[in-house]
Structures are given as C-alpha cells and as structure tokens.
Design brief:
This protein is an all-alpha fold. Helices cover 77% and strands 0% of the residues.
C-alpha cells in the first residue's frame, strides 16, 4: 500500500558546505600557518647561530695561522734566506755591521 502524501516534505539533502563549516576550516588552516611559520623562525635562528659560530671559528683559524706564520718568519728572518743564497742588501748590511761590531 502506498503512503499518502500529506504535503509535508522531509528534510532536504544537504548540498555544499554551511557557513559554520567554512569558518571552522578557515580557522584550522590559519592555526596551521602560524605553526609552520613558528617552526620556520626557530629553524632560521638555529641556522644563523650555527653559521655565525662557523664563521667565527674560520676567522680565528685564519688569524692564528697568520700570527704563527709571522712569528715564524720573524724568528727565522734573514738566516733562512742566507742559507738559501738569497739575502737582501739590507739584511746583508745589518749582518756586516754586527760582525764589525763584534770584531
């Protein structure tokens, strides 16, 4: 037997999203963006700190090498060049004056 049509329609099937659902999705997306930017900011800070430490270590190493080279050259001076047969006129004059003073 057929049900009689009383003229009342049942609930309509929903088509699409309601305003509340859209707003909830928008809030969830915004929270996700904030979290992503916070993680990115922390990552950049750590990278910056690491790079600055590495740059400082490299600069210190270069400075120490230059200082060591200069001290080594100052201690060995003209004698090293004299042994190699390469001596400058100024160094030769200094050595000649020293020998003359010692005689």
């Amino acid at each position: 037997m057929a049900t009689p049509n009383t003229g009342r329609a049942g609930p309509k099937p929903s088509r699409g999203l309601s305003l509340i659902e859209i707003l909830v999705g928008l809030v969830i997306g915004m929270i996700g963006i904030v979290v992503i930017f916070q993680v990115l900011a922390v990552s950049e800070d750590r990278k910056r700190t690491t790079v600055q430490g590495s740059d400082s270590q490299s600069a210190g190493s270069i400075a120490l090498y230059s200082l060591q080279r200069d001290v080594h050259r100052a201690l060995n001076g003209p004698l090293q060049y004299q042994r190699a047969g390469i001596i400058s006129d100024a160094a030769h004059q200094v050595q000649t004056a020293r020998r003359a003073g010692n005689d």
